[in-house]
Amino acid sequence: MTVTIVGSQLGDEGKGGVVDLYGDAADVVARYQGGDNAGHTVVHDGETYKLSLVPSGAVRGKIGVLGNGCVINPRTLFDEISTLQEKGLDPDVRVAERAHVILPFHRVLDGIEEDVKSESDQEVGTTGRGIGPTYEDKAGRRGVRIGDLLDPDVLRERLEYVVPQKRALVEDVYDIAVEDLDDPDAFDVDALFEEFREFGQRLEEEEMTVNASTFLTDAMADGQTVMFEGAQGTIIDIDHGNYPYVTSSNPTAGGAAVGTGLSPGVIADGEVIGIVKAYLTRVGSGPLPTELGGVVGDTPGYDEQGDGENEELATYIREEGGEYGTVTGRPRRVGWLDMPMLRHSARVNGFTGLAVNHIDVLAGLDEVKVGHSYDHEGEEIFTIPSTTEQWGECEANFRSFDGWPEVDWEAVAEDGYDAIPENARTYLEYLADELDTPIYAVGVGPGREETVVVEDPYE
Ligand code: GDP
Ligand code: IMO
Ligand code: MG
């Protein structure tokens, strides 16, 4: 039986914490998409671990697999492993031979394209990790895969094909001299070959590369339990999200099959848990009909920091929830929970359970609101429209809930669901009813112990 953890909103829903909670029963934790654009926080024994690439299970001695659907920056991979080792851990990370490699020029191109787009206010606000350009090369059939790093002839051949194209893109399309860049070696075949061949040797020596499909299938045949750790979230999925303000992969549940080489039946036989933040945050651009206030640079059309009641509330929630990007440190945009978004997410992913985090952050407010539906062109609609332009025109219809008090959340976590303040339970039950999905867990604080566990998917 497998458990797939999926972000139901815009990323940063607290997936890392839930993987840590339920991952105890798993032997293997596999990521199936994305790369070091993710930022997952795991709090263990009073120590906070921030991971971007290595699966969250590595903190507790699980085998971490980076599936074929991931894009892997070997510099980040080995840096992160060293950091964990310095903290006394011994992470066991396996990397799919079919996964694509983020090369230094991908990062440079990510930056250049965002700069160019920003001239006409079209930037996505990416994490700058080269994710989009790497997936572009994957789809363009000119990418370098982890398996290619193991064979010097293949690696050189691939680089000799792709690097001159990237150099021409920078020089002829963007009109920038490669020699003027901070990292001109990013476009030098010999320099790239030398560095990435060494990564290949290290991956080989440390026996880190696998065929994810056979590795995971064999593990399950041996009776091991597997968890799939989605990064990012449904509304930044390249197909089902808010294009073009999306990442370039499929965080949605279907991605777990494609991105690991297991059949959709394996994923569907297990549980798919939607991680929901009790309000909304967003890093980067794109519409957000339930947004409170705004963040200059990210909120469309918001050029100057305003003030007023909603701004104050947004600032309050941002500070209480520590809503600053794990990877980039940027202030996250904040809004009320958006039900049309969650209905879309529940449908696309087929959630069997929900983990709702951060209800402690909202404690102490007099009133908690939810965008129940939208008004669009004179009609009430209950799911998000397909185009970003239409979504941007939607006005949220709010429902109001009575707030709940600040309480001793650790005690609540120990005592169980009924100890959650009544008004918060009303809020949770509304959510479960609307999405027709039971609540499996409720996050009442950042630590693993600060979680009310209603259902353990592995039991
Ligand atoms: P991820 O990207 O989905 O794994 O989430 P992040 O780690 O980027 O962001 C979640 C943040 O919220 C982290 O700092 C967590 O420690 C914290 N967190 C997770 N669940 C809760 C919760 O229920 N309450 C509070 N207050 N913080 C939480
Ligand atoms: P976790 O796993 C929140 C956002 C970026 C940007 C868009 C595209 O921590 O939930 P990219 O660098 O992927 O090309 O950026 O996607 N984004 C995230 N937002 N959480 C994440 O990951 C994100 N990963 C990417 O801010 O808007
Ligand atoms: Mg995050």
Q: What features would you describe in this structure?
A:
The chain is 34% helix and 19% strand. The protein has 14 helices and 20 strands. A 10-stranded mixed beta sheet has the order 9-7-5-2-10-1-11-15-19-20, with helices on both faces. Strands 14, 16, 17 and 18 form a 4-stranded mixed beta sheet that branches. The longest helix is centred in the middle third of the chain and has 22 residues. It is globular and about 65 Å long. The chain starts with a strand and ends in a 6-residue tail after the last strand. The model has no long low-confidence stretch (mean pLDDT 95). Magnesium ion binds next to loops. Belongs to the adenylosuccinate synthetase family. Its EC number is 6.3.4.4. Its cofactor is Mg(2+).
Our Rg estimate from Cα atoms comes to 22 Å
Number of self-contained structural domains: 3
CATH topology (level 3) name of the largest domain = Adenylosuccinate Synthetase, Chain A, domain 3
CATH class identity of the largest domain: Alpha Beta
Which sheet architecture does the biggest sheet show? 10 strands, mixed
The portion of residues assigned to helices is 25-40%
**Content-based structural category:** alpha/beta
Mean pLDDT: 95
- Which stretches of 5+ consecutive residues score pLDDT under 50? none
Shape type: globular
Strand order of the largest sheet: 9-7-5-2-10-1-11-15-19-20
Oligomerization state of this entry?
single chain
Named at the architecture level, the CATH assignment of the largest domain is Alpha-Beta Complex
Count up the helices.
14
Q: By CATH's scheme, which homologous superfamily of the largest domain applies?
A: Adenylosuccinate Synthetase, subunit A, domain 3
Beta strands, count: 20
How much of the polypeptide forms β-strand, as a percent range?
Answer: 15-25%
Each distinct ligand: guanosine-5'-diphosphate, 6-O-phosphoryl inosine monophosphate, magnesium ion
Protein name: Adenylosuccinate synthetase
EC number: 6.3.4.4
Function: Plays an important role in the de novo pathway of purine nucleotide biosynthesis. Catalyzes the first committed step in the biosynthesis of AMP from IMP.
Keywords: Cytoplasm, GTP-binding, Ligase, Magnesium, Metal-binding, Nucleotide-binding, Purine biosynthesis
